[in-house]
Amino acid sequence: MKGFAMLKIGEVGWIEKDRPACGPNDAICRPLALAPCTSDVHTVWEGAIGDRHNMILGHEALGIVDEVGSEVKDFKKGDRVIVPAITPDWGEEAEQRGFPSQTTGACGGWKFSNFKDGVFAEFFHVNQADANLALLPEGMSLEAAVMIPDMLSTGFMGAENANIPIGGTVAVLGIGPVGLCGIMGAKLRGAGRIFAVGTRPKPIEVAKAYGATDIVSYKDGDTVEQILKATDGKGVDSVIVSGGGPDILVDAINLAKAGGTISNNNYFGKGMFDKDYLPIPRTGWGFGMASKNIINGLCPGGKVRMERLADVVTYGRMDPALMATQVYRGFEKIEDALMMMRNKTGDVIKPVVICE
Fold this sequence. Notes:
Layout: E1 2-8, E2 11-16, E3 27-34, H1 38-45, E4 55-56, E5 61-68, E6 80-83, H2 93-96, E7 124-126, H3 129-132, E8 134-135, H4 142-145, H5 148-160, E9 170-173, H6 177-188, E10 194-197, H7 201-210, E11 214-216, H8 223-230, E12 236-241, H9 248-255, E13 256-264, E14 293-296, H10 303-314, E15 324-329, H11 334-343, E16 350-354
Parallel strand pairs: 9-10, 9-12, 10-11, 12-13, 13-14, 15-16
Antiparallel strand pairs: 1-2, 1-4, 3-5, 3-7, 3-16, 5-6, 6-8
């Protein structure tokens, strides 16, 4: 089979590999729709998770089931499915403690394009299919559905972890697709005022559609000063960090009220750092005693998560297709889409590749 791969740090290309084998609890899928992620960019061009050789990229996909193992009960050949970006080992110790994305180790549920070949291939493998796949609802657009495996799941996690009180004030730092889903998640969780920090016109347009009440441009001055001024010096109840370099955490902590929550779903790639640690402002954190909570997490996966997010779309709570700013046709276009994600050509939010 053919796949688009990381050949080594800083280099990508098309390669030939054997079709993956299907275990008794697993499935083999063909791609129906794909989307590149900034995580792919961090992986290849920043070496964020270390060197990988001839590893097929991609972790955002809708698929068509081509083969199922002998123990799979809920899926059959020909089913159109949502494939979560994170495919945990259900039943493993971390999952039983309530942290399935961390099975087998830190971020261990992230298998595609990390520990094994990803979804940018003519065929890809899904472990524990009954727990890690969900049926694609009839009539849902592929452009909307392909946002579910990672963008909705990660962005909504940012809001879920942010401890947003009903009517609370929220700041979302970064309005790429994950930040935009964080805005929508904050609205669904009952936020009152939502500050969205960003500058590009198209993401700002979608941020407003998803519920942002205030747009803050870092080009107009210090982000913290602008939001503190707008809130009469009070700050915000919750901060969702969805972009930026290491210093973005300084802004987040300085923005949060006492008792506030900083929810991070940003991927701090290795290429961002001179040293391998993140800064915390001593005074903004109350010398370690300001009752400001920092929570992080990895995109939740699994069937139930995908089904619930699909219901958000099915019942009109959100239209993820607004983020599909560029749509390509044909599997071979994944290279163009990834390069667009890398270069942020034009006013891109998320390029999507329709494979059927």
